[in-house]
Write a structure and sequence with these properties.
Distance between the termini: 86 Å
Radius of gyration: 29 Å
Helix content: over 70%
Mean pLDDT: 85
Order of helices and strands: HHEEHHH
Structural class: mainly alpha
Largest sheet: 2 strands, antiparallel
Strand order of the largest sheet: 1-2
Shape: rod-shaped
Amino acid sequence: MSWEVIGVIASVIALLVAIQTYHRQFNVPPPVFPEPEPITEKENLKAHFKMNQRISLEIQQLLQNQIDLGNGDNLIFGTYTITKYYEFIKSEYEDNLNDRLYENFDTLPANKYHIDSMLKSLQTQFQNLQVVKNYLKLL
C-alpha cells in the first residue's frame, strides 16, 4: 500500500472522529429527515375514489333511464321506489364522492393507518355499488 492511500484513509478516519466529537460536545442531534409521504398509497386511494365516482354516476344513469321509461314508482330493494333510490344515490354522491373531497386528498394525513382505513372503506363501497349496478342492469 502506498503512503498516499494510507494518508487518505487516515484523513477520513480523522474527519469521522472530529464529527463525532463535535456532536458529543455540543449535543447536536443527528439530522432527522421527515418520512416521505407514501405517494403510491395516496395515488391508489385516489384511483379507488375515482372508480367509485364513476360507478356511482353509472348507477345514477341506469336509474334515470328507468325513471324515463316510466318505472320510477316501481319498488327496488324492498321498500324504495326507483325515484327515491335515485335521489338517495345522487345525494350520497354529492356528500361523499364529490370532486371537492377528491381535491382535498393531498391535504389528508399521510399516515398509513388512515390511508389503509379509507382504502378499505372505498373497496367495500365499490363492491356494494357493483352489486347495485349489476342488479339494475337486470331490470
